[in-house]
Amino acid sequence: MQAIENVQSFKEFPCSQCDYIARRKHNLKYHVKIHHGPFDFKCTHCDYITKWKKSLKKHVNSRHGSAQFKCTDCDYVTTWEPYLKEHVNVRHGSTQFNCKQCDYVTTGKCNLKRHMNVRHGLTRFKCTRCDYVTKDKRCLKTHMNSRHGSTQFKCTDCDFVTTWEPSLKRHMNIRHGSTQFKCKQCDYVTKDKCNLKRHMDLHHGSTQFKCTDCDYVTTWKPFLKRHMNVRHGSTQFKCAHCDFVTTWERSLKRHMNVRHGSTQFKCKQCDYVTKDKCNLKRHMNVRHGSTQFKCTDCDYVTKWKRSFKRHINVRHGSTQFKCEQCDYVTKDKDNLKSHMNARHCSTQFQCEQCDYVTTNKLNLKSHMNVRHGSTQFKCTNCDFVTKWKSSLKKHMIIRHGSTQRCS
């Protein structure tokens, strides 16, 4: 505990070539290598360059490697041996890790450690400057740096300020940088390297991840994990206070906090109170935030980064998303997803209480709530009753001028 309490007394390691100051010696080495060191490792097959030997090995193996690691029990194939080990352990492994304090079972040792810490862990890390408490040491470090850290990284071209150096780099590249990353197989152009990698995997990647229980196929590994958990996962997280059940642990955490938790997050500038931390952040940004995203091509201004990106793409962008099964074309990726789901998706969601059928899961939830649901949201100031939470919020604002959270 004392190591955490004395987090501000760490020795500082300044960079001799710039103003960077690190609290750990290995962080300084990493900074020097990335910012001031020469590029050391080049790919002999393409233009890929990196400062890390292990990154080059991974690149050569995944992009140019002929070696394949095949699962002996199914059709799974990968060019990365750790992925095969993980696959064999999760899909075909008999080894299971059981929690000694509850019924939790997993095939991943790391998952058990995380579960023990979150669910049964007694160790807590407290902030010495405020009431923040967490069970994760990394979360405390992140909190200390973002909330109480004295080091700030300022943009030389605008008023952008952050306590995270990677955020400044990304801001410089996207807002003021001239560097562009172009796709070699189509007209896609972006200023963010991560976006290009994601684009290559989704649209041109040859690697496919197949579901062993159905015909689902994707080029994105996280999508397969999500599919397996939602569609075929046997693990369920149940609320101890009500009938709420979910296949996502984070959904249970949010449910416990919002429905049964006593913790409240209060706005320091007004009377707004909520049980959801994300709602407080959204409130601070909309009501009291000074940050604005302005379009350089027109008068559009917004406080939401997502809205700004969508505006740029739809109004001024040349990128188009085309449907592979018909002539539908749009500038909005979300619209294409909605179109694919509504027009060409074979998956259907049927109501168990009537003949209603839809290709959209959210539509089914909406139908269940309106037609068969018993949940009602009541106004505390009058007799207004509705099945829609958004309608109650709108009513509270229009009729009673209140922005307080509706319960």
UniProtKB/TrEMBL annotation:
It holds the Pfam family zf-H2C2_5. Residues 13-40, 181-208, 265-293, 321-349, 349-377 form the C2H2-type domain. InterPro entries: Zinc_finger/UBP_domain, Znf_C2H2_sf, Znf_C2H2_type. PROSITE patterns: ZINC_FINGER_C2H2_2. Keywords: Metal-binding, Repeat, Zinc, Zinc-finger. GO terms for biological process: positive regulation of transcription by RNA polymerase II. GO terms for cellular component: nucleus. One of its GO terms (molecular function) is zinc ion binding. The keyword Cell division does not apply. It comes from the Eukaryota. This is C2H2-type domain-containing protein. It comes from Pyrocoelia pectoralis. The lineage of its organism: Eukaryota, Metazoa, Ecdysozoa, Arthropoda, Hexapoda.
